[in-house]
Amino acid sequence: MEPLIFNCFKPARMSSYDIIREFKRNIPKKDLGKIGHFGTLDPFACGVLLIGVSGAQKLNNLIHDDLTKTYLAIGKLGVDYDTGDMTGICTQTDDSDYFNKEIPQFSKDFIQSQLEEKFLGTYWQAPHKFSAAKYEGKKLYEYAREGVEIKKAKKERFVHKIEVVKYAFPYLSIRFEVSSGTYIRTLFSDCAQYLGTLGTLVSLVRESIGDMNIHNSIPYKGLPGKESFSKDLGMTPDEAYPAQKYTLNDKLAAHFVNGVQLSLTQFDYKFDATKKYWLYNEKNELLGLANIENEKIKSQFIFSFNS
Fold first, then answer.
1. What angle do CA 70, 74, 78 make, to 5 degrees?
2. What is the pTM of this model?
């Protein structure tokens, strides 16, 4: 199988690895090659989960670092759970007069303006104690389940868009477009605190990663071994990750796939050092991804057509 990325819809109450397991169980290893997913989606959450096979998993870091993610978060104000969602234990409730009398009077537009003013743009955040972030090779939620709370330093994230979708006190629905690595349960809790109360998630949907969204994702019944799976449902890496495109002649293509850095003096084309390039051979086969460094074309990764 050629390198492909599958935009799968992960149902709630399933792990990200459960989806990978469906591929491994039902596609011969010789066709599947290496496999991986692009960003863990908690069992609590549902939505877009990208699966890379046969070399496409090499894009993991690029997609994680460069493509924004959109989530629809539905939460409840006035309560705090240890997990940040209602799968955990309620640790605190807000019984204040402000919560019971003032917050119910907030309009959707007022909440929108308040959250945009505070959270749009650069946003510093530490991972939630029940997240899959790691400390000394162990996931934070594994420590938390043992009663140990690991506090990691805040990291810079970016909130591109905030849309208050619905407010029906005490339930608040917000659509966030954020940089990768942003923990939505923490962001929702921070939003609730800024409004003057507590907040925890009721449900979470990852609606998109870049241009790949739930509207064109493969439903669970369409996964390998289910009703209607086909490798034609997959995307090639250059369809999933946006970059410039350039075709090498056969001689230069052979050098590239053998790891040779190509000098720009061999080309009439003017390459842009700020951009990445998908490179093809004259048969229009995708060879790999490259960037421009020190006046040379340097591979970031190369695909094998024999895998």
1. 135
2. 0.89
